[in-house]
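Researcher: Let's do a round of design. I'm pasting the structure tokens now; please hold your answer until I've finished.
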């Protein structure tokens, strides 16, 4: 993918810096309802989900590298499997979640180790949590909600504070289109208020009445370097293809399947 195209995908994230409120804050009840809509938009209940993901990581001054994965999800049972298919040095590695535990498999030592949803997939800036359902309405409360402009999009900006310890980030900001509850941008913060990650999802595609991100860009706001006097951060563009909502075998969501597919 050309460099200009890669960067243009993420321009929406920069635009937010100039975002301005265009209406009064929305009510508490409206904000809660919208947050539930966000959760629903990230979940595919009543069906399985499968897709190919291409993760193109760009490190300032070091060029790009590509990781490819296959993802299977069964949101009804909160289960998923992620298989890394490239590059060759990482092929066969994978993740599997079931019974509220996430396991990482490395074929080099044929061992599963317990991991978390914050683990970097294939060393990129993306994590398993970027590909799975969100549960914001369960784990966060809305501290602030206001209507803003994100580029040409009219959004509601939600500032969320965690009410549970079982979350990756204590504070999150979401930019959401109100009519469909789709996340257009997300910022993850530390307890001290430091910006850790920025995610932009400018485009969605409709598959069998489900909205699926076409491309996502994840920026690691802690990893970067100055080039020509300007700070540039590591970022990973995620492209999703070959989307399917066909039923998968139960065995797909098991350690045995991950082991078998690594051979």
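Researcher: That's everything. Go ahead.
Model: Designed sequence:
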């Amino acid at each position: 993918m050309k460099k200009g195209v890669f960067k243009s995908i993420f321009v929406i994230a920069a635009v937010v810096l100039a975002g301005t409120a265009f209406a009064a804050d929305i009510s508490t009840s409206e904000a809660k309802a919208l947050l539930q809509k966000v959760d629903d938009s990230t979940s595919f209940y009543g069906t399985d989900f499968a897709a190919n993901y291409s993760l193109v990581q760009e490190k300032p001054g070091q060029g790009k590298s590509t990781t490819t994965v296959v993802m299977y999800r069964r949101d009804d049972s909160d289960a998923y499997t992620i298989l890394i298919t490239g590059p060759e040095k990482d092929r066969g590695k994978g993740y599997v979640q079931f019974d509220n535990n996430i396991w990482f498999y490395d074929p080099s030592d044929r061992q599963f180790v317990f991991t978390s949803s914050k683990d970097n997939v294939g060393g990129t800036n993306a994590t398993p949590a970027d590909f799975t359902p969100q549960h914001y309405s369960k784990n966060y409360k809305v501290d602030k909600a206001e209507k803003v402009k994100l580029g040409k999009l009219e959004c509601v900006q939600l500032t969320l504070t965690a009410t549970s310890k079982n979350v990756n980030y204590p504070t999150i900001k979401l930019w959401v289109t109100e009519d469909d509850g789709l996340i257009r941008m997300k910022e993850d913060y530390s307890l001290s208020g430091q910006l850790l990650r920025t995610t932009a999802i400018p485009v969605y595609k409709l598959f069998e009445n489900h909205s699926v991100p076409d491309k996502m860009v994840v920026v690691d706001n802690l990893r970067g370097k100055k080039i020509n006097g300007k700070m540039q951060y590591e970022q990973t563009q995620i492209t999703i293809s070959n989307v399917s909502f066909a039923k998968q075998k139960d065995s797909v969501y098991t350690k045995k399947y991950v082991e078998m597919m690594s051979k």
